[in-house]
């Protein structure tokens, strides 16, 4: 589905259902139903998962601050980002990073 690919390629910005529906030539409700049928997820949930996955990768591979990472994955408010990250991973990004530092990795 092109819309899912568009979201993956633009994970750093907020895209709403109306924009995606307009691109696809459908009404909002029809597009949302098609998207969920194709991906198994609502548009907003899908987009959040993509953004948090990108943030997790940056937390794992860089020393950038949580605020910088939040901004780079499309969250202007780092506190809101931290709440969203915690919803997905059960811990805030700062704790996630600290925990990860103490884990021995076998891929290094």
Mean pLDDT score: 89
- Regions with pLDDT < 50 over 5+ consecutive residues? 104-108
The helix count comes to 7
CATH architecture: Orthogonal Bundle
- What is the radius of gyration? 16 Å
Give the total of beta strands. Answer: 0
Q: Give the SSE order as H and E letters.
A: HHHHHHH
Question: Shape from CA axes?
Answer: elongated
CATH homologous superfamily title: Homeodomain-like
Overall tally of structural domains = 1
Main beta sheet: strand number and arrangement? none
The level of helicity is: 55-70%
Helix/strand/pairing category = mainly alpha
Strand content: under 5%
Q: Could you say what the CATH topology is called?
A: Arc Repressor Mutant, subunit A
Task: Describe it.
It is built from seven helices and no strands. It is mostly helical and 108 residues long. The longest helix has 19 residues, at 43-61.
Q: Which characteristics define this entry?
A:
108 residues, Arc Repressor Mutant, subunit A, mainly alpha
